[in-house]
């Protein structure tokens, strides 16, 4: 689970998640947890931080990046604050059909946005 990479934000987030996990271990019935729901983008945004991605992946326009990847990263910069890394990379490290569909929806949003740009940009 990506956390802020360093400093007080890292310690605060680790503490928050640790308290939550301890509470769940003691008081929650794990058989009643809807794991499919917890794997969705709407849940992931509550604990995945872009800085955790960009800390290691600072170069978003590498030489080997596909045209589709370049378009997606340009979209990300234009929509910063509206979209996050996990909007397109939700299934990194994990995979489910639900997540794959959410990634397809994100790709459609990128393609739609690109079609609105003036020619030559």
Give the SSE layout.
Elements: H1 7-27, H2 35-38, H3 41-44, H4 50-54, H5 67-78, H6 85-89, H7 97-115
> Judging from the principal axes of the Cα atoms, what is the shape?
globular
Q: How many domain regions?
A: 1
Number of contiguous helices: 7
Low-confidence stretches: none
Oligomer: single chain
Distance between the termini: 36 Å
Protein described:
With 121 residues, the chain is an all-alpha fold. The protein has one domain (7-115). The chain contains seven helices and no strands. The chain is globular and about 60 Å long.
Label this structure with key terms:
mainly alpha; 121 residues; globular
In short:
The protein is mainly α and 121 residues long. It has seven helices and no strands.
